[in-house]
Amino acid sequence: MSARYITTTLPYVNADPHIGFALEVVQADVLARMWRAAGDDVFFSMGTDEHGQKVFEAAQKERKEPQAYVNHAVVEFQKLKEELDLTNDAFIRTTSSAHIAAAQEMWRCCAEKGDIYKKAYTGLYCVGCEAFKTEKDIVDRKCPLHPDTELKEISEENYFFKFSKYQGQLLSYLEQPGVIVPEWRRAEAIIFVKNGLEDFSVSREKSRLSWGIPVPDDDSQIMYVWFDALTNYISTLGWPDDGHGNFKKFWEEGTTLQVAGKDQVRFQSLMWQAMLMSADIKNTDSIFYHGFITSGGQKMSKSLGNVISPYELVKKYGTDATRYLLLRHINPTEDSDLTLEAIHEHYTAHLTNGLGNLVARVMKLAEQYLPQPIEEPNIEGTYPPEISHYIWEFHFNEAMDFIWEYIQRGDQNITEREPFKVIKKDQQKGVQMIYEFVQELYLIAHFLIPFMPMTSETIKKAVLENKKPENLFPRLDKIAS
Questions:
Q1: What fold does the segment set 340-465 form as a domain?
Q2: Contact 21, 82 (CB under 8 A)
Q3: What is the predicted pLDDT for the residue at 480?
């Protein structure tokens, strides 16, 4: 049995969860479920980033103290566990006392290595990224990721991390196949490092921004939110004290995987890895980067009114239908466009008329003609090599396509072989045929476990009770655009 650790990024709590983050946590959940099914010991973590300027400004806008604001806002992210049927083992908050202590210890480790120093600095700061931008990072004096946000010129004395010191070590790390998936993101990271690394600021003057973790031994400064937040990947395991042994088991001796959006390469695969090198901690084994979800060809934004809420989808279509949409109709690594109209078409065509219809057809025949339920197959924890291969390669959509080929073939077989007619002419032959269809349906339900767990359970229960269930995916009106 192997120890495996998987974590998502930490979203800021200045806005409600969006469908892009829902994609990330569902992808991570599928991987965690597959590893557990294979007999591995898994630690799956997610959480929230609750410090920084964006959060502070959101709290001010609502006229709340920052801590009161984040305590209220975090609930919307904690709800994802139930709403999306996630199996995470931990939910880390960067305002927790344990995380604050870990972030300060990370600072001390890097400082003792001689990698943190203080200097005066003037630079352009993007509030959206919570980061200073160099000339090579900006286009027409704007941040490409937040073109509607004015860059602020800030002059102050901050602590800096010796990022440039780790250029050679980072290149050696990045040269290892598999440390970044997909491969072209690894190539991007290598080019970024080869172009030269600049030391980055790891603190802010408390007089300008008071909401954050205090810098050890300097009350005039707070930690840069990224230095603080990145430490969550080990603080959630109990580092540095490691009272329960999770850090040793899952990070030091286990296999580690981080899941993140494509805009995170610099932070996750470069800055965080350099921090780990400085603190003499093992680097992350692999980081998987997914693409963005656009809507109507545009990036989702409140001002455009094209934001799709995962909670809205769950309320309308259900948890498993939402998981299905994210896993099958979103490209795992490229940007994908998703509209409310497309969502409804996918739901109707592939769930209502596809899986739901097949279950209804097979179980109606079984309930009417089978004298007893089939015996439960002994296939726990086993999956076709195709599904396993697709998941280990992060091709979630292709794994779903493979399952839907079974569904389509099952529907086609019923139509072509007509068991409802055969049984009237030859009962024994007809009953045997229906048994085969039910066994095939149970197999499909088994394949669906990591992807649509509640649907899988419902179908298995129906098969083993030999009873047609309620419509799994009833016909629905479209969500108003």
A1: Isoleucyl-tRNA Synthetase; Domain 1 (1.10.730)
A2: no
A3: 56
Omega within 30 of 0 (cis) for the link into 419: no
Please name the residues in contact with 66: beta carbons below 8 A apart, sequence gap of 6 or more. 55, 56, 59, 211
**Banded pLDDT at 264 (limits 50, 70, 90):** very high
Angstrom distance (rounded) from CA 310 to CA 321: 11
- The domain ranges of the chain are 3-290, 340-465
Q: Residue 99's closest CA among 175, 47, 156, 22?
A: 47
- Region 3-290: CATH code: 3.40.50.620
Nearest to 90 by CA among 255, 284, 246, 224: 246
Q: How far apart are CA 168 and CA 363, in angstroms?
A: 62
Distance spanning both ends of the chain, measured CA to CA: 48
Name the least confident of 39-48, 121-130, 328-337: 121-130
Q: How far apart are CA 111 and CA 476, in angstroms?
A: 59
Whether omega for the bond prior to residue 474 falls within 30 degrees of 0, making it cis, is: no
Judge whether 3-290 and 340-465 match in fold: no
Are the C-beta atoms of residues 136 and 195 closer than 8 Å to each other? yes
Side-by-side strand order, sheet with 200-201: 131-133, 116-126, 152-161, 200-201
